[in-house]
Amino acid sequence: MSQEKKYLTTASGAPVGDNQNSITAGHRGPTLIQDVHLLEKLAHFNRERVPERVVHAKGAGAHGYFEVTNDVSKYTKADFLSEVGKKTPMFIRFSTVAGELGSADTVRDPRGFAVKFYTDEGNYDLVGNNTPVFFIRDAIKFPDFIHTQKRNPQTHLKDKNAVWDFWSLSPESLHQITILHSDRGIPATLRHQNGYGSHTFKWVNKDGEAFYVKYHFKTDQGIKNLDPKVADELAGTNPDYHTEDLFNAIEEGNYPSWTLKVQIMPEADAQNYRYDPFDVTKVWPHEDYPLVEVGKMVLDRNPENYFAEVEQAAFSPGHFVPGIEASPDKMLQGRLFAYSDAHRYRIGANHESLPINRAKSPVNNYQRDGFMSHDGNGGSAPNYEPNSFSDAPKETPENKISPYEVSGFADSVPYDQDDHYSQPRALFRDVMNDEERERLIQNFADHMSAVTREGIVDRQLENFYKVAPELAEGVAAKLGVEVPASVKE
Ligand code: NDP
Ligand code: HEM
Description:
12 helices; EC 1.11.1.6; binds NADPH dihydro-nicotinamide-adenine-dinucleotide phosphate; ten-stranded antiparallel beta sheet; about 15% strand; alpha+beta; about 500 residues; binds protoporphyrin IX containing FE
């Protein structure tokens, strides 16, 4: 058959004779089961969806590269950061958190900022948000927290009583909800926002010295946000506004970029730092640890196929490369399990070999088989270790983690520090200007006005009062209620 003109085939490659009329018994039917092309079309269509991500379901992705612009090799031996000018291909997926796959882009919600670096030593994933902190600081609270962000089990409606019930009983959320209800809670586009690794990670250099780091991707486009009324309108008229903007910008050659900076804390400082450095509800004030430039990330290529590249992308905070390790942060530790577990459920045990996820460096191990094993499955090479084959993959002791000391009793222990207030206070009083403070108060009041269950608003006003009395009084005035007297005593 001529290959000059592409011809239509079944999934098994046989040419299709008719793709418009099913095979029927006579002109009026019925349809014959003999039409295997029809059966295949209907059956495959029924299987088009994989489960959407349980959080961050709505997203947009892009390819690009990361280029080192400053020598940080004294802090980390990570090969992709080893010399100025080194370029590494990467893929990013931006997302909202709470909405479903088809939900609107312009809602008030943190934005996911998940980056996959295809390094020469395997994939390094930095799965962050556009906020430097998070709502909670122990993984054990995550499923409960997300239930309050999703739909009510009876009404299937979004439930602001649940949201504020949980937040008001979890004062560690105050920092993140202050950022969320500030202007930055609704970015103008995905290009006009910063990204943060949020957690503290560990960098290790060639001499085995360890440093704790926090990542900041600063947008080179400048910060721009949406007016909430405009955002509400856009949610109705163009729910894919952010997705469209990113795609069009890249298509037009208007490549967005971010400058990656890090804060670096010598390992020994962690013992006595004024904040728990592993508490993801806290930042490290810049005056303590200034930003050090690392490089530039540029997005210059749109995905060719949304499902193959964006929906099947599997980012995991557990994907590290030598020179970058986890910190003891209890949230991060929970995430090290959760993501690859989600990927095995969502896209299968062999998701790492899908083209978007496959490392560009060699992958050699003794894992085998499972659904959809399609990359040769290790061929005839041995599938066990220890073995006596000289050419079989061997561990490399120089890539063991950097050892760190732990002590104490195994127990369910709360964090030592309960200061949920000083950092949101610094943001409210020292960073925001009068107009920003006023809009923050309005945004809180607009969201809380839908709270009807008794006690929740009072409890939240008490929390706000501990951040700043004028914040609590401002929100209370807009809601037409009083700050409870008990908190003022
Ligand atoms: P600085 O004055 O040195 O920095 C203030 C920071 O706040 C800048 O990084 C700025 O980002 C960021 N910012 C400004 N407006 C908002 C907003 N509405 N939501 C989130 N971030 C915003 O202050 P400190 O380092 O002493 O920190 C003071 C407070 O600033 C912190 O308590 C925290 O709430 C907030 N912050 C601090 C960060 C940190 O890593 N230290 C990071 C982000 C926020 P940009 O420079 O891009 O405009
Ligand atoms: C997505 C769990 C905290 C950022 C996800 C997914 C799960 C999950 C299961 C879906 C993964 C998939 O199906 O591909 C958790 C748990 C957390 C937690 C258990 C706390 C213990 C955080 C924090 C951040 C974050 C603190 C940011 C700092 C993201 C992002 C995505 C995501 C960006 C989307 C990744 C993508 O684009 O594919 N999370 N998460 N999460 N999470 Fe978390």
